[in-house]
Amino acid sequence: MHSSRARSVGGAGCLLLLALAILGSLVLGQIPISLATLAESFTSFDPARVEHLVVRSERLTRTVVAMAIGASLAVAGVLIQSLTRNPLASPGILGINAGALFFVVLGFSLFSLLAPSQLIWLALAGAALAAVTVYGLGHEPGQGLSPIRTVLAGVAITALFVSFSQGLLILDQSRFESMLFWLAGSVSGRSLDAVLPLLPWMAGGVLVSLALARQLNLLGLDDDMIQGLGLNVARVRMICGALIILLAGAAVAIGGLIGFVGLMVPHIARGLFGTDHRWLLPAAALLGAILVLAADILARLIIPPREVPVGVVTALLGTPLFLHLARRSREMS
Q1: How many Å separate Cα 18 from the centre of its chain?
Q2: Neighbours of 160 (CB within 10 A)
């Protein structure tokens, strides 16, 4: 069992890691920034200095974006695993991210929409369509959601929507080249002014999720027992579904297809903090932000001076974990 003292120490450790990750994101890259220069870029900004411009116009934005995406995808992963009672579930695995991506590509290709504040509505619509489709395909009459059928449906929907997205962009080579890096998942090249309108949505989704922590603890029980405790199961599940769509859709609208964050982080958080959602959700938000920040730092340093898409780094980290979980689930079944 995880004691409150151990959880408090773990929470403090996560905050320390987050602070270090933020610092690393601001100073590491093709142009190294000293701590003194970093401080000066905020206290006495000089637009004539390249280092100050790099910090204020590029790295600060991508740090904020990475934290927002990581926290949103991680919390969405906790919600979807609690909702489906499936350890393999995540917005990426179940096709929600891919659905949001396809609708974003539609808006970009057909209407030349570029601002995240414009793409968010399309992303939410695509995420909702994918979620409903996967739910329908994974549901067994009289038995509820089948974990295996749900995962298979999610994989199929993901492949379908990603193929549609690529097909649309291939028809226009210039657009394909401009969005290729974004399709693989990236936190670079975003304007802070364009991203700021979406941050309240993501923060609101995380806060509402935290407010549902006690109800989420009850979702692991049998439905009859839950109803006996007076919990409106249908309402809680509907709210959770809306939060998953909001958080995943907003993350895709900003950063593209960054996978496996919603799968990895909930399992790491449970191993460190237990299954109580009052601790699990904030821990997942912190760890998700740390993971995407760390992946972005690695993406800059692997093959300098070029960058690797963040989604590639998270896929390299997440694929072995997914295979391990799939094997363990098969052995337990």
Answers
A1: 16
A2: 16
Comparing CA positions, the residue from 267, 208, 274 lying closest to residue 241 is 208
Pair type for strands 144-145 and 139-140: antiparallel
Within 10 angstroms of residue 12's Cβ, the number of other Cβ atoms is 10
Kindly list the distances between the CA atom of residue 278 and the CA atoms of 139, 209, 288, in Å, as whole numbers in the listed order. 29, 10, 16
User: Which one is predicted more confidently, 306 or 38?
Assistant: 38
Q: What number of CA atoms fall less than 13 Å from residue 102's CA on the CB side?
A: 20
pTM here is 0.91
Maximum C-alpha span of the chain:
67
Single-letter residue type at 75: V
Predicted confidence (pLDDT) per residue in 284-325, tens digit: 999 999 999 999 999 999 888 888 889 889 988 888 877 777
What's the rounded Cα separation, in Å, for the pair 88 and 2?
23
Residue corresponding to tokens 């790491």: 268
Tell me the pLDDT tens digit for each residue of 177-201: 667 766 778 888 777 887 888 899 9
pLDDT at 1 over 50: no
69 closest CA partner among 92, 95, 99: 92
For residue 267, give the 3-state DSSP assignment.
helix
DSSP-based three-state secondary structure for 189: coil
Half-sphere exposure of 164 (CA within 13 A, CB side): 17
Give percent above pLDDT 70 in the chain. 89
Contact of 35 with 255, CB cutoff 8 Å = no
Beta-carbon contacts of 301 under 8 Å, excluding residues fewer than 6 positions away, are 28, 29
How far is it, in rounded angstroms, from Cα 63 to Cα 185? 15
Amino acid at 52: H
DSSP state of 49: -
pLDDT reading at 333 higher than 60: no
Q: What is the mean pLDDT of residues 128-145?
A: 83
Tokens of 219: 């979702």
